[in-house]
Amino acid sequence: MAHVSEDDHHTESHSEVTQTLDTLGGMKTVVQRVGVALLLTVGVAACSSSNSGVESSDTTVIDIALIPASKVIDVRTATEFSEGHVKGARNLDIQNGDLEDALASLDKEAAYSVYCRSGNRSATAVQLMRNAGFTNVVDLGALEEAAQSLSLPIVTN
Fold first, then answer.
1. Local structure of residue 151 (DSSP, 8 states)
2. Are strands 154-155 and 71-74 parallel, antiparallel or unpaired?
3. pTM of the full predicted structure?
4. Is residue 34 within 8 Å of residue 45, measured between CB atoms?
5. How far apart are CA 47 and CA 42, in angstroms?
6. Contact 122, 75 (CB under 8 A)
7. What's the pLDDT at 70?
8. Using an 8 Å Cβ cutoff, are 134 and 112 in contact?
9. Fewer beta carbons within 10 angstroms: which end of the chain, N or C?
């Protein structure tokens, strides 16, 4: 029976580990080379033009029509407006005639979002604007609903 000392066993184990790492290292090199070859093949195929007699309109141009934000109109009184309004809103009080006076100077082709305290005055304002020829007018109802719909904060400045 052959006796294997612990030093011999350690040397054999070290040798096996070294062989395994060499094999894995070789596999790593092979995988890297295959990966590079694959990338080169895909790159060349993507850059080459295949002209098989079929016209291709692969000049894809994405035409995104940006929708302009609506002009926000707050039809409450100046006092109500100063107590809090949607950021960027214009105050055109419907009760004192500000809105009606401003209609002639507003762009009838623009988009408008209108709100008030509860939704009553904004409904009246939207009808007034539509009767004046405005076609893109939305009633957002109350202040809080308007702020939420527009994803805008309520400010007091």
1. T
2. unpaired
3. 0.57
4. no
5. 9
6. yes
7. 87
8. yes
9. N
